[in-house]
Every structure is written in structure tokens, then in C-alpha cells.
Amino acid sequence: MTEQYWNANKGGYLKCPVKECNHIGIVITKAHCRIVHGITREEVREQYGLPKGVSKLNRKQIEKIKRVKGGN
User: Fold this and answer.
1) Residues 10, 56: contact at Cβ < 8 Å?
2) pLDDT tens series, the chain, 72 aa
3) How many CA atoms lie within 13 A of 66 on its CB side?
4) Residues 4, 5, 6, 11: is their CA dihedral positive or negative?
5) CA 8, 56, 7: angle at the middle one, nearest 5?
6) Listed residue (9, 14, 65) closest to 41, CA to CA
7) What is the SS3 string spanning 15-33?
8) Which domain of life is it from (predicted)?
């Protein structure tokens, strides 16, 4: 079962807690952690903490953030 803090509240988004990562989505998956960072989600939590909630941005705003920061 997925822990609630890895899923955004309805209508919201989360930002991956890994400092160099700019992944924003409604869920931070185990696959994202393993493929992009090479560690488990539990290891991400231990090293970087939990994902942070991001205000309700529209798709264009999210894409702009990703382009500016060179995100995934």
C-alpha cells in the first residue's frame, strides 16, 4: 500500500525531495526513485526527507519550472 505522503492531495502536486531533482507530479513512485536516483523510496526518505507539496500550478507553469531548473 502506498504511504499517503508520497501521493499529493486532490488537485495538488508533490516535488521529489532529492535536491538536484525537479520532478513534480501527483505521486512520487518507487520506480522514479529507483530509475532516476538509483535508490529505494525508503532510502530517499532517509537521506532527503519526504516530498514537499507544491501549490496548484497549471501544466504550463510546471513545464516552465522544469525548463528553468533543467528538471526531468
Assistant:
1) no
2) 456 689 988 878 899 999 989 898 999 999 999 999 999 999 999 999 999 988 766 777 777 877 776 655
3) 14
4) positive
5) 5
6) 14
7) ECCCCCCCCEECECCHHHH
8) Bacteria
Tell me the whole-structure pTM to 2 decimals.
0.71
Place of cell 519526504: 50
DSSP class of residue 6 equals: G
C-alpha cell at 23: 520532478
Q: b/e map of 35-59 (b: 16 or more CB within 10 Å)?
A: ebbeeebeebbeebeebeebeeeee
Alpha helices in 1-72 (DSSP H): 30-32, 41-48, 59-69
Which residue, chain included where needed, has cell 529507483? Answer: 34
